[in-house]
Each structure stands twice: as structure tokens, then as C-alpha cells.
Amino acid sequence: MSRVTRLEADRGRVRVLVDGEEWGEVPAGTLSRWGIREGDEVSPEQLFRYERSLAMDRALRLLSGRDRSRLEICGRLKRFGHHEEVVREVVGRLAEMGYLDDVSFARRFARERVGKGYGRERVLSDLLRRGVGRELAEEAVRREYEGVSDLEEARVLAARRYNTGERSDALARRVHGFLRRRGYQAEVCVLVAREYRGSPLQR
């Protein structure tokens, strides 16, 4: 058996030490719900249940802010110091409850980016960075961008940002760089940027 050797409260949270070593930091309300007091003996099974409960609370708080992929939640919980087995259990339970679904996550993510003027390449890259598998990410992008004209979207986006009447090679380069950063394909960026070169009389 292990022993809770110290509880250090600070601004609504409690740092828990077990056998003289830091076990974790817990909201005071959670600690009260568990009924843990300084000096209590705790079994490995109890510690596992407490950690699983804490990891679940943390995961739900993360998901309340925005949708996340399974890999994102796994990574964040591991950075909090949770053990691999706890992370697997929590992520599996969240998936069973419908809180973690990479298919839905990828589609919602792509749909939101379409509405914000991001190109396919940027959305695909962002999904991969968030831990969505390539095949799933590519399918979500294909599905949500179906019927979308990249050229027309890029033109609208550029006009909204650079609608000054100016035409110059320097502006064309800025337009090209801007659209590339937004994730539009190179050939689309070239076509739109060309429309901003030179003076109106030269076009």
C-alpha cells in the first residue's frame, strides 16, 4: 500500500504527494469527491482509478474548447504525465461515448476551413498535423471541397484583402505569397497573382 504523504492546496487546486513523491495536481472539488485525506493509505488499484478519473476530466475539458483528434488527446494526456494504460482507457471510453471520432472531426474541420477561405493543401496539412490519418484526411478534404472552384475562391480572397486598385509586380508577389500561405495550389496562386501585375492599362 502507498500513503498520501502531503496535500498542498493553492487557488482551488491541490498538489498530491504519494510516498513523498508528486503524484499529480487535482481540483479541490475532485479531491473532496474522492474523499482523500493526508495520511490515507491507497492501493495501486485506487491510484489507477483516481488517475483515470483525473485524465477523463482533463480530456473532457480539452474537448469542451474545440474538437480534437484522438492523437491530439493522447498527446495532451501524456504531456500531463498520465500512464499509457490510463490514456488508452480514457481515449477508448471517449470514442465509445462519441466524443472522439476522427471521421467526424476531419469533416467538420475541413468544412469550417472551406468557409474561412483556406485552400485544400493547407487544410490537408493541418489535419495531418493534428494526427488524422492521411487517407481519412484526404477523403475529408475531397468531400468538403467537392464543387468548390479553387480559382474563384482564391480570387475572392485576394480581392477582399488587396482591393486597392493598385497593380504592380510587388503586389502580385504579395498576393501569391498570401494565397500560398492560405493553402492554395501553386498554379492557382500564379493565375490570381498575374491579375495584380502591372497597371490597369497594361492588363
Give a structural overview.
The chain has helices at residues 28-34, 44-65, 70-79, 84-96, 102-115, 120-129, 134-144, 150-162, 169-181, 186-194; strands at residues 2-10, 13-18, 21-27, 41-42. It folds into four domains: 1-42; 43-100, Arc Repressor Mutant, subunit A (Orthogonal Bundle), CATH 1.10.10; 102-144; 150-202. The protein has a four-stranded antiparallel beta sheet. 60% of the residues lie in helices and 12% in strands. By secondary structure, it is α+β, with helices and mostly antiparallel strands. Strand 1 (2-10) and strand 2 (13-18) form a beta hairpin. The radius of gyration is 25 Å and the shape is elongated.
- Approximate helicity band: 55-70%
How would a crystallographer describe the biggest sheet? 4 strands, antiparallel
Low-confidence stretches: none
Task: Please identify, by name, the CATH architecture of the largest domain.
Answer: Orthogonal Bundle
**Secondary structure tally, helices:** 10
Q: Which percent range describes the beta-strand content?
A: 5-15%
Strand order of the largest sheet: 3-2-1-4
Strand element count: 4
CATH topology category name of the largest domain? Arc Repressor Mutant, subunit A
Rg over CA atoms, rounded to whole Å, is: 25 Å
- Please give the alpha-carbon distance between the first and last residues: 81 Å
Q: What's the CATH class of the largest domain, please?
A: Mainly Alpha
User: What is the 3D form?
Assistant: elongated
Question: Structural class from helices and strands?
Answer: alpha+beta
Number of domains: 4
